[in-house]
């Protein structure tokens, strides 16, 4: 077999090593445009888990690499005169040049041919090769040459960054957040060998301009950075090596394979430096390709296996990198945070690290986070313990005069089980059991303000006396048997009305028994959906009056709070989104105009809703579709409602148009809650694939939301919150007297179960290489 590898970086060299080990008789040549000892950048960083992977696949190169590494466990966050150190992370740094020389040496040992200073721009010279690896880096010529085939998407990010070095020794992976007269600068720094450290400087484009960095050469830029960070560099110089400021390109390629050619490393996909994953991804690409070649019957099949099996892991890493880079791009959102909360946000920014696993590795740090959160709660008038505080999920919250005992919320979820809008015994059990189960706040499903405002024939309503009586029964049960508060969510289906029950075909139009639907514009949801009537002023008045009447009924029912549903493509949302609002009158066009009618409804409802009771609004913070609402517009939307008197923004996303492309994942909507909360400066509730109390604590402690709504977890476990209270020892959680023996038992058992699990996790966690090295160099005790 003949293999040509274009690009002699870590991806190309490691692929050559692994393929040559598999097939000693193969003819493998690596072609590199630079000299053998050329390199750009300074150090590379790997986690212990990545090194474990290297150890498994090629022990000789692994041993040589680890002999050259600098090891550390801590991450140090410097912010506003404080430093917080978080241990147990397991990182290793190495000179990029030494890494390349080690891989070159190992490749030669195995019989790989290495050709340097050879510039390849035409693969036709390898017509006799069985396999061609395109590992020519982030600016890949071949990816661009065959751009129509590979179909790369390049997202050039806003922040400016420059890669430099220093002789300043470091004993931790160090983040420095430096305030200047021009704006914030960030340094990502780590030691990669004795006396040498990597420094990546980052800032937003406005700060970059104000600081006068535009047009400076490498030495001038280094001098400016050395001046800004002089207090930390302590006399050590900054070193340059092609250290020009640039913007990071996030690259995703629709295809990785063309015939017998395959993209590897940054040529196919890039991940932001803030999670230190570039070289890791490149070398793990080589591992994945070698594994595919080992087991597949031929090269074509191997490349198919490689692309399909590897893509998921790469995209997961890229998603984490995306979330991380956005945090750094918008660090100004958190600049007024308490420093310990800020540091917690740094640690949990990509969602890979959560509250519980951070508490295992750095219990003292998380204890400070808990105290900081409790101090904020105490500052809002609650007499809570700040020395031994409860976890954030079990801290109280006040909205106007409504006090919520904890931050766990049962999300509004349509049950499609009402009878002509009348809630049934099903609803009594559904809401009552979740309230008894301990949730601080219960949301009703979207309750429709008129018969023709329903989504489906099974939707609940509040337009007549029978419905009001049924809802009052539910509210009375919740108040009489739990400590939960209950919020009425009011909405109008708009163009998504007259559809089938969810389990019969969600959003599909009724085949019979339907009703006329309305919307901002006459645009059907599906091509075969009913075309809605464009709402005129008389229709707007009727809709407004139905909302007001339903709110008045809600007050008579005794609801503690009211939410206006302005999301998910329903009537009010259809005015807000430009994808569903094509009007040319004063209710269309600009965002101000598109918000006019939803704000009118909100203000009319707010006027009749008691002033001591809070109101929230649910919004779709993005339509997940080109030309739709964006996160930045969501901030403006939230501000407009806040000015009108909203107390909480329930931040959801999407469901506006049927061809939206959501990016799902754990806590996938939380970044939008984060943006709205910390830019609009309004309380938020986050929702969306949040499944554990651990995740809820992570979100709250990092200041990304004030309440956490959980939907599906509550569907299968009415006592989700009570179980979480037992797990975290929140023994003040309310429990009906009938259930007290069960509460006492689960609280006793949970103490032991938590201790057992934590001990098991600690025992199962391998020692980091930094710990092993420290043990190996520790002097033997005298006998």
From TrEMBL:
Which part of the chain is the NADH:flavin oxidoreductase/NADH oxidase N-terminal domain? 393-725
UniProt KW Acyltransferase keyword: no
Q: Which UniProt keywords apply?
A: Monooxygenase, Oxidoreductase
What Pfam families has UniProt attached to this entry?
FAD_binding_3, Oxidored_FMN
InterPro entries on file: Aldolase_TIM (IPR013785), FAD-bd (IPR002938), FAD/NAD-bd_sf (IPR036188), OxRdtase_FMN_N (IPR001155), YqjM-like (IPR044152)
Q: Does the keyword Oxidoreductase apply?
A: yes
- Record domain FAD-binding: where: 2-317
Q: Give the Gene Ontology MF terms in alphabetical order.
A: FAD binding; FMN binding; monooxygenase activity; NADP binding; NADPH dehydrogenase activity
Against CDD domains, the record matches this protein to: OYE_YqiM_FMN
Q: Which top-rank group of organisms is this from?
A: Bacteria
Write down the PANTHER family for this protein, in alphabetical order: BLR3436 PROTEIN (PTHR43303:SF3), NADPH DEHYDROGENASE C23G7.10C-RELATED (PTHR43303)
| Protein name, entry field | Anthraniloyl-CoA monooxygenase
């Amino acid at each position: 077999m003949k293999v040509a590898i274009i690009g002699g970086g870590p991806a190309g060299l490691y692929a050559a090593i692994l393929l040559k080990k598999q097939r000693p008789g193969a003819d493998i040549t690596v072609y590199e445009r630079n000299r053998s000892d050329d390199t750009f950048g300074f150090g590379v960083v790997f986690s212990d888990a990545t090194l474990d992977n290297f150890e498994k696949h090629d022990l000789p190169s692994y041993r040589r690499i680890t002999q050259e590494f600098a090891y550390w466990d801590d991450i140090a966050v410097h912010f506003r005169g404080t430093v917080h150190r978080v241990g147990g992370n397991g990182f290793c740094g190495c000179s990029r040049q030494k890494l390349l020389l080690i891989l070159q040496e190992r490749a030669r040992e195995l019989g790989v041919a290495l050709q340097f200073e050879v510039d390849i721009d035409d693969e036709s010279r390898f017509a006799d090769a069985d396999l061609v690896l395109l590992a020519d880096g982030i600016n890949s010529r071949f990816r661009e040459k065959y751009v129509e085939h590979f179909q790369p998407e390049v997202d050039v990010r806003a922040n400016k960054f420059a890669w430099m070095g220093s002789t300043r020794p470091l004993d931790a992976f160090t983040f420095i957040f430096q305030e200047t007269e021009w704006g914030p600068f960030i340094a990502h720094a780590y030691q990669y060998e004795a006396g040498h450290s990597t420094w990546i400087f980052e800032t937003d484009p406005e700060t970059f301009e104000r600081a006068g960095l535009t047009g400076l050469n490498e030495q001038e830029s280094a001098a400016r950075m050395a001046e800004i960070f002089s207090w930390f560099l302590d006399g050590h110089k900054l070193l340059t090596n092609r250290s020009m400021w640039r913007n990071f390109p996030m690259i995703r390629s629709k295809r990785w394979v063309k015939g017998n050619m395959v993209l590897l490393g940054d040529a196919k996909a890039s991940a932001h430096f803030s999670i230190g994953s570039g070289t890791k991804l490149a070398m793990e690409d080589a591992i994945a390709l070698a594994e595919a070649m080992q087991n597949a019957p031929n090269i074509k099949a191997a490349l198919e296996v490689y692309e399909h099996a590897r893509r998921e892991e790469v995209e997961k890493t890229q998603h984490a990198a995306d979330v991380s880079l956005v945090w750094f791009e918008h660090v100004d959102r958190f600049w007024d945070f308490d420093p310990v909360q800020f540091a917690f946000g740094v640690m949990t920014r990509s969602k890979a690290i959560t509250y519980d696993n951070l508490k295992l590795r750095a219990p003292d740090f998380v204890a400070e986070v808990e105290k900081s959160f409790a101090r904020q709660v105490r500052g809002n008038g609650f007499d809570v313990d700040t020395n031994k505080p409860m976890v954030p999920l079990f801290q109280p919250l006040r909205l106007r005069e409504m006090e919520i005992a904890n931050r766990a919320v049962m999300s509004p979820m349509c049950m499609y089980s009402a009878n002509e809008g009348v809630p049934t015994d099903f609803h009594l059990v559904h809401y009552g059991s979740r309230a008894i189960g301990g949730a601080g706040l219960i949301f009703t499903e979207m309750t429709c303000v008129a018969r023709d405002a329903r989504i489906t024939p099974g939707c609940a309503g509040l337009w007549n006396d029978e419905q009001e009586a049924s809802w009052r029964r539910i509210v009375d049960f919740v108040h009489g048997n739990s400590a939960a508060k209950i919020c009425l969510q009011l909405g109008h289906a708009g163009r998504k009305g007259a559809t089938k029950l969810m389990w019969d075909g969600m959003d599909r139009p009724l085949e019979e028994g339907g009703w006329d639907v309305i919307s901002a514009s006459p645009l059907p949801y599906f091509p075969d959906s009913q075309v809605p009537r464009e709402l005129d002023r008389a229709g707007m008045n009727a809709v407004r009056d139905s909302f007001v009447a339903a709110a008045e009924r809600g007050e008579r029912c005794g609801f503690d709070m009211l939410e206006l549903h302005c999301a998910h493509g329903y009537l009010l949302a259809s005015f807000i989104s430009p994808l569903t609002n094509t009007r040319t009158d004063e209710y269309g066009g600009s965002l101000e105009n598109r918000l006019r009618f939803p704000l009118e409804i909100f203000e009319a409802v707010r006027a009749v809703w008691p002033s001591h009771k809070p109101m929230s609004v649910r919004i779709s913070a993005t339509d997940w579709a080109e030309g739709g609402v964006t996160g930045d517009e969501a901030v403006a939307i939230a501000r407009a409602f806040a000015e009108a008197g909203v107390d909480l923004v329930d931040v959801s996303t999407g469901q506006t148009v049927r061809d939206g492309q959501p990016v799902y994942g754990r806590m996938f909507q939380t970044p939008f809650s984060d943006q709205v909360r910390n830019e609009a400066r309004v309380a938020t509730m986050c929702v969306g694939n949040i499944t554990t109390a651990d995740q809820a604590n992570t979100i709250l402690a990092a200041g990304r939301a004030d309440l956490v709504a959980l939907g599906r977890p509550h569907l299968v476990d009415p006592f989700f919150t009570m179980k979480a209270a037992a797990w975290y020892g929140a023994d003040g959680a309310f429990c009906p007297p009938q259930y007290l023996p069960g509460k006492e038992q689960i609280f006793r058992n949970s103490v032991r179960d938590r201790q057992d699990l934590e001990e098991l996790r600690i025992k199962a966690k391998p020692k980091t290489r930094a710990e092993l090295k420290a043990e190996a160099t520790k002097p033997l005790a005298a006998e």
